[in-house]
Design goal:
By secondary structure, the protein is of the alpha/beta class. It has 13 helices and 11 strands. Strands 1, 2, 3, 4, 5, 6, 7, 8 and 9 form a 9-stranded mixed sheet that branches. A two-stranded parallel ribbon has the order 10-11. Helix 3 (82-94) runs parallel beside helix 4 and helix 8 (203-215) packs parallel to helix 9 (231-238).
């Protein structure tokens, strides 16, 4: 059992299909991990309501632990049966996983109620302190209906692992870092970039991704995935690389202003309410939200321009966001009981239907070419 310390702080490789990774030979996988300095493996443990018991087993975990390798389960979730998905995640924890990674993507867009049900039950089953990570869309602004504020909010995942597959997105390593950080930093969770090895990326791009992760202050990175990594990929992800001399990371949080719609607006509104500004949490940055922002700025000694830029973000993020209980049938009593079971500290709740932004369509699924869901290529 190797749970001491954060397993994501080691060199980390994802495994999707164990039989396709060194033929599923555990001794060969251990040898490869040692050769390339991989200290943690993220192995798929479930897909929706199906536990992958043929590959994620206590015996496998014990063998890898005996070799000094940490093991995390990762589950692809859909939101059709969120409570069962929570039990599937808890099963990986019971089997000995050192952490659990939640791969939630297109299927969870607009599903605030389901995301909350899943997270609340999962925390009830595994405890408030167990290490959880969200691996989702890197471009938050492309997905206005995705409930990042639930998965990464109070009682949610402690770590953010955006899938920064630059070649799949059709951009550069530098651009994927700038865009991802601008829209993920506001959620105030440590960002562990997930890099691309499928699709034969040039070795110099893999090296650049590693260097950029250092420049952006990422605690560590992980790679998708073992079965698709070439010899060149393995060499590029493991050989020593230097820092980028004189490079200035573009870590400025994106400015959000009137007219914006999406989960980042939900996040802003939850913080405004926590700061004592009366505003409806609906995911739409209208006149009322702009007025609330300006009032907050004035009270905080900031320029009252009504735009949530870096300085205003810093002020808002000092507050614990207002806890929302999404769904028309929830009651304050049920909400408080659910929060207590999930280990949340706050019992201040508001019961609302879905934010209007939950009905907005995504701009684009930027990582559509990756594998992982349902054991099929593409998501």
């Amino acid at each position: 059992m190797l749970r001491a310390g954060n397993p994501l702080d080691r060199r980390t490789m994802w495994i999707w299909e164990l039989p396709q990774s060194n033929g599923g030979d555990v001794n060969s996988i251990i040898a490869g991990a040692r050769h390339y300095g991989v200290g943690t493996l993220l192995i798929k443990s479930s897909d929706g309501t199906s536990f992958w018991s043929s590959q994620f087993t206590p015996q496998l975990i014990s063998a890898l632990h005996a070799a000094g390798i940490k093991v995390c389960g990762w589950q692809y979730v859909y939101g059709n049966h969120p409570i069962t998905e929570a039990y599937m995640g808890a099963q990986a924890v019971r089997d000995g996983a050192d952490c659990l990674v939640i791969d939630a993507e297109a299927e969870y867009q607009g599903r605030y109620v389901q995301a909350q049900s899943y997270m609340t039950r999962l925390r009830t089953l595994i405890g408030a302190a167990y290490p959880l990570a969200l691996a989702g869309f890197p471009y938050v602004d492309y997905h206005p209906a995705f409930p990042y504020s639930v998965f990464l909010g109070p009682g949610g995942a402690q770590y953010n692992v955006p899938q920064m597959y630059w070649r799949d997105i059709g951009t550069t390593t530098d651009a994927v870092f700038a865009h991802t950080y601008a829209f993920n930093e506001p959620y105030a969770r440590p960002i562990y970039p997930l890099g691309q090895l499928y699709g034969n990326p040039p070795a110099h791009q893999v090296v650049r991704f590693r260097q950029l992760s250092r420049a952006y202050g990422a605690p560590n990175i992980s790679w998708w995935d073992w079965q698709e990594a070439s010899g060149s990929d393995w060499s590029a992800l493991s050989r020593p690389v230097g820092a980028l001399a004189g490079y200035a990371a573009a870590k400025t949080m994106s400015s959000i202003a009137k007219g914006a719609v999406g989960d980042l607006v939900v996040w802003i509104q939850e913080h405004l309410v926590a700061a004592g500004q009366p505003v409806t949490v609906d995911g739409g940055f209208g006149q009322a939200t702009q007025t609330a922002v300006m009032n907050f700025q004035t009270a905080s000694g900031l320029v009252a321009d009504g735009v949530v830029g870096p300085a205003t973000w810093a002020g808002l993020l000092r507050y614990t966001p207002q806890t929302m209980i999404w769904g028309k049938t929830a009651t304050a009593h049920r909400a408080r009981m659910a929060l207590a079971r999930g280990g949340a500290r706050t019992v201040s709740v508001r019961t609302l239907a879905l934010p209007t932004s939950a009905r907005r369509r995504e701009r684009r699924n930027e990582i559509a070419g990756a594998g992982g869901a349902g054991g099929r290529p593409g998501r």
